[in-house]
Amino acid sequence: MMKKMSIPTSKTSLVLFLCQIISALEVPLDLSQPPTITQQSPKDYIVDPRENIVIQCEAKGKPPPSFSWTRNGTHFDIDKDAQVTMKPNSGTLVINIMNGGKAEAYEGVYQCTARNERGAAISNNIVIRPSRSPLWTKEKLEPNHVREGDSLVLHCRPPVGLPPPIIFWMDNAFQRLPQSERVSQGLNGDLYFSNVQPEDTREDYICYARFNHTQTIQQKQPISVKVFSMDSLNDTIAANLSDTDIYGAKPVTERQPVLLTPTGSTSTKVELRGNVLLLECIAAGLPTPVIRWIKEGGELPANRTFFENFKKTLKIIDVSEADSGNYKCTARNTLGSVHHVISVTVKAAPYWITAPRNLVLSPGEDGTLICRANGNPKPSISWLANGVPIAIAPEDPSRKVDGDTIIFSHVQERSSAVYQCNASNEYGYLLANAFVNVLAEPPRILTPANKLYQVIADSPALLDCAYFGSPKPEIEWFKGVKGSILRGNEYVFHDNGTLEIPVAQKNSAGTYTCVARNELGKIQNEVHLEIKDPTMIIKQPEYKVIQRYGQASFECIIKHDSTLLPTVTWLKDNDELPDDERFLVGKDNLTIMNVTDKDDGTYTCIVNTTLDSVSASAVLTVVARPNPPFDLELTGQLERSVELSWIPGDENNSPITNFVIEYEDALHEPGVWHYQTEVPGTQTTVQLKLSPYVNYSFRVIAVNKIGRSQPSEPSEQYLTKSASPDENPANVQGIGSEPDNLVITWEPLKGFQSNGPGLQYKVSWRQKDVDDEWTSVIVANVSKYIVSGTPTFVPYEVKVQALNDLGYAPEPSEVIGHSGEDLPMVAPGNVQVHVINSTLAKVHWDPVPLKTVRGHLQGYKVYYWKVQSLSRRSRRHVEKKILTFRGNKTFGMLPGLEPYSSYKLNVRVVNGKGEGPASPDKVFKTPEGVPSSPSFLKITNPTLDSLTLEWGSPTHPNGVLTSYTLKFQPINNTHELGPLVEIRIPANESSLILKNLNYSTRYKFYFNAQTSVGSGSQITEEAVTIMDEAGILHPAVGAGKVQPLYPRIRNVTTAAAETYANISWEYEGPDHANFYVEYGVAGSKEDWKKEIVNGSRSFFVLKGLTPGTAYKVRVGAEGLSGFRSAEDVFETGPAMASRQVDIATQGWFIGLMCAVALLILILLIVCFIRRNKGGKYPVKEKEDAHADPEIQPMKEDDGTFGEYSDAEDHKPLKKGSRTPSDRTVKKEDSDDSLVDYGEGVNDWAGGQLFCIEDCRRAMDSKRCRCFRRCIQKLMCGMMHERGILSLNQKPIFQPFHM
User: Fold this and answer.
1) Bias category Basic and acidic residues: which stretches (predicted)?
2) How far, in Å, CA of 731 to CA of 749, rounded?
3) Taking the mean position of all CA atoms in its chain, how far away is CA 1244?
4) Global pTM?
5) Distance of alpha carbon 48 from its chain centroid, rounded?
6) Residue 1205 · residue 1179 · CB < 8 Å
7) How far is CA 1228 from CA 863, 1225, 1236, 1280, 1288, in A?
8) What SS3 string covers 715-726?
9) What confidence tens digit (pLDDT) does each residue in 116-132 have?
10) Spatial separation of the C-alpha atoms in residues 2 and 511, rounded to whole Å
11) How many CA atoms lie less than 13 Å away from 1021 in the CB half-sphere?
């Protein structure tokens, strides 16, 4: 069975994979080998004094090693200390502190030794120290009294702990104190104030020290700070100082920067390689200084440099010797700057260049152990053998020490040992164990057989062949069963046996064989490689800009290898999606409902398979209306202006385009906000113009592309001083409402336009063009004044001036008005009418004198109406029409007149008050015109060679009709028109019979009327003459027969029962018409119900009717211009109580059965006599073309039935056939069921009524057979009516023949 292994595709994963392969090249544990330390405690081991101390030491080897310990350089006998135990099959020590032991008693340096017959390995020196979290020493803390603007340092001085504590500042409520560029905590834990402010006054500055190892927090006593501001000092000494002394000096003295830490201009710092370098500069000054860092003579290392604590701390991670140098910090404010240079030296504890590695040799081989390390200062190298300095260790002739190298030559099995290399300087040491194991072993492959590797196409493939052997085997790779050895640039062969295919393609798939051989043997192993298609995101999520509370959707459509199972994960800002039901993760999308501001961020779709991973990201930007501005401030207050400033709110990812400023006048219109002005979105101050005597409040609204923000909080109120009005009322007018007055109106000034209290108006007027003085009156704050006793419609000069308690507004401008109008006095004269044509006339009149208008001339109105039509001499209701002609116009056109009619008109002048008197009525007549089309044209009574035409006179003759003109022409089967025939008909005719027409021919007719003026519009119609009576078409017509044009349904009759009604009708028209019956409740507005009639029968039974109800009914035909019959009304019978009876016991049923039996017997006797008399009776050879094929004719000579031959007697009949031997009647062979006799259960009555009537009119030869069928229908119908038979059940008697 193949074991599957997926090879990752990323470079990082590839390196880790190679490291795993390299570290796996070890001596198998079933072979003899010296000890190897596999696990040990850290060199500097700080333990919790309240818990047991566990010192780890684990090792492997063959045979399994034994363990021993030293403490402070001497043997540590654990058997003599009851508190110390060693774990079974392990070197790990457990010191029991929780049962009485004290951690301080076990402080020291410990070292573990693991030993077997092939050597001894040792651990690092492990320094054990219990952690400490001492209390603060008690001290008396004096309150700090500081002047505003001065610097301040609050010292923490935490107790020395092991390890050092973490420092932070909080208040009594356990809330962290806010820090900023002005206030921050230093690396030593002190709290630095670059300058103090009044808000820094408090009594609970508390320094806390958290000792993580023991999970304890120690608290310093609270420190009190009191800041004295210049305002409070001024209040204290105000009585002894003048206003100039108090307010002329600056409240706080600004100062240039001074460094609080470090002090002086230079300092030094030593840091070890690989550690984090922290440099700090904190400065005092007002304004608060800004810190900037540089490295003299170089650049700060990219990607490893960070600024913390508001740029007061420079942090460089993973420092190296190259980071040594001078680092300069500069503190700067508006008054100056100060700097400090820190000289940094990077030292290094020893670090490996080449650490010694285990050496496996076969007897007689050579080898080397190399131990190379570096550091600052350079470390010294020393060697040990099995934990003993090599100088005093037992000698080995195959071993030679050369500095950092041990050389082995012609080793033997006794040369097996563990060697230790120690590299040390003043900053630390390194200790490494490496064994020399002398073995003679044939090759073995450690990789499982038939291992399956799966990789993505175009990615590296690493095929493992972990091996062991002594001497070291040689490795070769083959592909396929009979493949040749692999070589070339397309493969990479690693020392650990791994075969690397840098770019695996589809053709790289297959079976690979690894062969390991040395002088002691050979072994091989097969592995298998599969190449998979890469996973791809074929539609990536796209950048979205969504309004707040909208919906965002990201797509992530993938394509992957069909054998791999992908998993799709969505992240937000490289973290899991919020646990929120608004986030809906679909198969290939992510939808966020009702997005909010916190949904803003980067969304990543990650697709993972066992072999590869792909991702795609998109940014979601949530936009919204801006937040309202805040901190509105009024400055520079003047009588007519003020400066407003504000701070913008959050723009919510959509830039603010402008700010709208509104004001409220709390004095005149409290609660009402008015538009003042607006400024661009980059501006946060504006100079506003003000009006006097207004109590202003302002608010600001921010606007972006999404919309307007909520208004800001109102600013403080500002009341401007009073002044006389700057303007007068607008829209002053003088218009009289009555003939003897003048109404002066104006738009009052708004409250803020009054400029002061006591707003009034001075209204002045005088008659124009008359040497009169102005008449004036002062009125309260109103909007009109009425002047009485004026002449009618006289011009006046009018003006209105505003005034208040402080004076008048500027002199107002004058406007012209008029006193009230009166109705005009005279009518227009000399009215003349000129008739242009039969529908248009022109009217003229003389203008009235302007003095008689007594108002503003608006125009003239012409009233006109039709008196009568000259052709019909009939009067009708007079409907007057009005045409208005604006201005001083003296003529007009009257359109839309009716020809050959008599009209009257008059003219009136109009002013603003109304209409004047009418002029005398003027009579005029319109001439004749052409008539309208005839009202109808109907063609009836078609015969072989004639058609009857009927028509109606035109609705609008428009004159005296002189004649009618009829034109007609035939139409052949291809719709071609024949010659046109024209006939002139007298005007007093209303019908015409056209004779000598061709039979069965379609004609098209054109018909119009004439007056003396000309012909009117025509009406057209088509009709067809009928074919001959024999029904044989003329050869010229053939199959193209045209049906009569006017089919009709007439004589609709009804016979109603309780719940059904029989409907019958007569039809004239084309054959094969499809009928339908429509019915509904009489008097109801509901839609007609429609029932389709099967076949072309002329009767139908309506079922399911309501007893005692009146119904309306009509019959129609489909496909024939939708014609219908006239309506008929019928009423169903009253409901009867139903009762269940046994039909077999009913007298009517017994009597009926007897009559039927007697009738059948008589018919059989007659048939028998006739049959014996003539043998086989001749059958008439030719039946009537439309006769029923079942009904044979009777002999006309003697009235007897025509007889059939014996062969005919045995023929199956289409209807009424004999019952088969199984006593069943097939539906397709019999129509004696109720379904065939009627449309439903109640159809039998209608069917038998019409059946008997048809038989009565039938030919003698058919009548007997017809009556027989009617009797059968009658029997079946009654049985179904009384529930004896179901709808589709066959009759209980056999059909019979005559």
Assistant:
1) 1179-1198, 1220-1229
2) 11
3) 65
4) 0.50
5) 58
6) yes
7) 82, 9, 11, 20, 12
8) CCCEECCCCCCC
9) 999 999 999 999 999 98
10) 11
11) 21
